[in-house]
User: Fold this.
Amino acid sequence: MKARQPSPNAQFSAFLSRFSAEIVALAKRCMTKLRRALPGSTQVVYDYSHSLVVSFSMSERGYEAIVAVAIDPRCVRLYFDKSLPDPKGLLEGSGSKVRSVGVEAASDLDHGDIHALIKAAIKHSGVTFPRSRSTRMIVKSASKKRDRGRPGKPDTRMHLTKARR
Assistant:
């Protein structure tokens, strides 16, 4: 008889346990706010050796994310599609697929420039949210992806594209 696999939420909590209490608290507050902003979305969780990434997508494909949260020992960052307009110049990075912004406090997601980026990402995606406000979480294995790139280095690339309509 096979041992029962822990629920995705239990796995996510276990993944978070390796981070400091301050980072965990910030990540959890950000996740709650994003669940409210993206009702009916699928949270696709990737556990990398030094970070945890949660993609908020309307499918099970993390690369179709509207927004993604990256949690690492030092900070929490939101990732957006590189083609998202950024009139205030908040987004950092020169990646070919995504750019990011650091989150200092979960309240940043409720108002101001980061809130505007989230709203713009939702509009940019062209997604219509279902009436159901429930979200679901899926844990994807990232262990195979860790071997890409230089030996001993995790694959921290994130790929976001416009969600398919």
Summary: The CA atoms of residues 113 and 157 lie 25 Å apart.
